[in-house]
User: Fold this.
Amino acid sequence: MIDKIRHIKLYRMQINFIRKINFKGDYYFKNNNLIIKGSLNCSNNQLTKLPDNLVVKGNLNCFNNQLINLPNNLVVEGRLNCYNNQLTRLPDNLVINGGYCSNNKVKLKLPKDAKIGGYFYV
Assistant:
């Protein structure tokens, strides 16, 4: 029962995120993951968080927000561009295949289980 409640809360958070940024692209849900079929641009939305279990099949642009943390289990098959945020840490189970770009003023530690292909620019 507790797992079902967690699943429902995660699903609601993911749906609310899609509505908040007025996303019009293709997406679907699988195994508690919100999967975006292409790139996702959620920049300039004053976001403070992204939903957990977010999978982006293209690039993820989330710059000019107020993000403090990136979500756990974030997978970006392209590039992750998240400059002009307030990131203090990178999440567990982070996977980025195309590179990471940020200009945060806080020195970020890379989790041991992170997998980043391409460049890593902070």
